[in-house]
Design goal:
The protein is of the alpha+beta class and 135 residues long. Helices cover 33% and strands 33% of the residues. Strand 5 and strand 6 form a beta hairpin. The N and C termini lie far apart (31 Å).
Length: 135
């Protein structure tokens, strides 16, 4: 799924920012992924996207493979996250949306609460704190 970062985000972030963002320690990643529920989207047994949700309503990651952008994968994943958040009686969900992800979240009734600059392996990246009230 790192292709989502390397290809899609490359329109909005520099090569150095993309390199910092997409660097992964596999052992650390495996341990970290076990700390929260996650959902995988598959089409014909091919993994095409995934997302997660932390207990406080933080949607930490949502990535969709570049070959499967624009066909509803992210919408389906977000629907699953929202269903889980409601099941947990959460009042809202929130995320840090990248520049290219911002319109996706805005179209789905998230509001921007802050524009942020975050440091990632020595590089500054702009993202947006977004949240959605669940009623």
């Amino acid at each position: 799924m790192l292709g989502a970062v390397r290809e899609i985000a490359s329109k909005d972030y520099s090569p150095a920012q993309i390199a910092a963002w997409s660097e992964v320690d596999r052992a650390e990643w495996d341990d970290w992924r076990l700390t929260r529920p996650a959902w995988l989207a598959e089409i014909d047994t091919v993994a095409v996207g995934f997302t997660d949700l932390e207990p406080d309503g933080h949607l930490d990651m949502m990535l969709v493979h570049p070959d499967f952008q624009g066909i509803g994968v992210a919408t389906a994943l977000l629907g699953r996250v929202e269903a889980e958040a409601r099941k947990l009686s959460l009042a809202c969900i929130f995320a840090e949306a990248s520049i290219p992800a911002r319109p996706f979240f805005e179209r789905r009734d998230f509001r921007i609460t802050a524009t942020q600059t975050v440091e990632c392996r020595g590089r500054d990246l702009t993202n947006y704190r977004v949240e959605k009230e669940l009623v």
